[in-house]
Amino acid sequence: MDPLEQRAASGDLEAMGEIVRRHYGDVYRFLLNRMPLLDAEDATQETFLIAGKRLRSFRWDSTMKTWLFGIAINVARNRSRKRENPLPNVSDVECPDPTDGLIAAGVLKGALSKLSSEHREVVLLHEMDGLNYEECAQVLGVPAGTVKSRLHHAFRRLRELIEPGVTAT
Amino acid sequence: MTTSDIRSDLKAFLDGEVAPERAREIQEAVQSQPDLRAEADFFTRLSRSLKAISASDVESRASAERLATRFERRGFLPFFRRYAWQLAAAAGILFVAVLVAPRPRSAYEQADAGRLITASPPPAGSAAVGGGKAESSLDATSAEGELAEGRTRMGSEVPPSVAGDFQLDRMVIRTAVLRVRVENVASAEKSVRKWVAGSNGFIEDEQSSRLDGSEPSTLFVVRVPEKLFDAALDYFQSLGVTADRSIDGQDVTSQIVDLEQRVKTLKAQEETYRNILRQARRVGEVLEVQDYLTRIRTEIESIEAQAKQLKSLARLSTITLTLQQRVGSEKPGEDPNWASEAWAKAVRSLGSVLQALATAIIYVFVTSPIWLPATLILWFVVRRLKR
Q1: Is A54 on the interface with B (CB under 8 A)?
Q2: How far is A80 from chain B, CA to nearest CA, in Å?
Q3: pTM of the entire predicted model
Q4: Does A109 lie at the interface with B, CB-CB under 8 angstroms?
Q5: CATH for B172-248+316-325, options being 3.90.25, 3.30.30, 3.30.70, 3.40.1000
């Protein structure tokens, strides 16, 4: 158990300040993958303010990072609901060069936007936020087996969308 | 194992999320089946592509610092939040202590208890009615005693045995104002001083006037032990003829009990804050708790001073005694200085008349802007009419 996290969980706001410094970047990037740049900063602040209020409810069955991601994902969902035209859940960062063998960003964004929200979320968590299956399960509040299954189906669906002609049976 | 089973675990295999034995099986299948290999290649490429578009190098330190500082500045707030349980527990204990602690019996309750034991038996007529009647008769006696209590202090109607019961722990501030006309003020003063010194009291204030005139007088503010209050009044009155007398008694028992109770409660609070102070870690918290402690201490000392003053006033009664030389008007024939007294009175009367006259002139002068123009106009009009 991290002493800093323990202090923060006991209501020490100085420790919470340190938690912010430690995890702000992760949460910001996490939200940036789900909303535009301008919204992401507000959403990050909102996430930490909510976390500050709910610190006492933090249980030690997950890491602070995944707990924060759990809050952030709800913040992102709430903000997405309020938007008239939900934006694609990928960031507006520079697109990779297609010549290096990677799939073009525009194609990826288009394919991701056609996934169900459950499948898209698990893809973002695992591939873009770098969480393993267990951590994805903690953030989403589902068993690890469900994460594995959703990821499998999401990738199959993405292949169907990106390479329609070569989808295996 | 079927291709479908392999395929369902392919993504997990690529992510390193399958058991080693299962991983070997899938590895073999991928190598031997081109379509599986193609799917694995696509998944790997897709995964790399997704990672490439993720927001991985975004600068956010400045925003993080701002938010962190915002949290830290709110650090002073959670003092009560941090010690919420301790404070709530302390408040609860105090509340229970106040409820459970034996309440000091008021003087009335003590007097009631004493009276029930010492009260005289009820009249024969009421005893014949039964137990209930006899009890109400006792109550009636008590009520009567309470009504007569004020008079007890005046040293009158109530029998000594009942009066003694009521004096249990009773704190009464007794004051009297007395004006006594004496034959000779100087000798009466000496007597007063001697008596007060012998009674363990003291003279708080003394003012003499007209010592060289026909009516010298001296005012004493005398403090005497409460038990000697009546004796002091008797003695001072025996020095001459009593012209005025007023006696007052103020029961401050409940006030003192109340003040002492407040001091107890505040001391309990003070102890609680001291415990909190011992646990405080930050300078801000220490200063805050010390501020509370200072306020509580000031209040305790103020209340203790009030209680002390009330007790002091109750312990030593106050008599304001004016000794006045007798004047010839009481017995004109016997006063050898009647002529000089008459002269003095006449001079004083003349002074009063002159003062009244001067006052009238001032009034006339000050109000002249009102009446003078009207008078002048009237005078002018009358004069014209006469022509």
Answers
A1: no
A2: 18
A3: 0.41
A4: yes
A5: 3.30.70
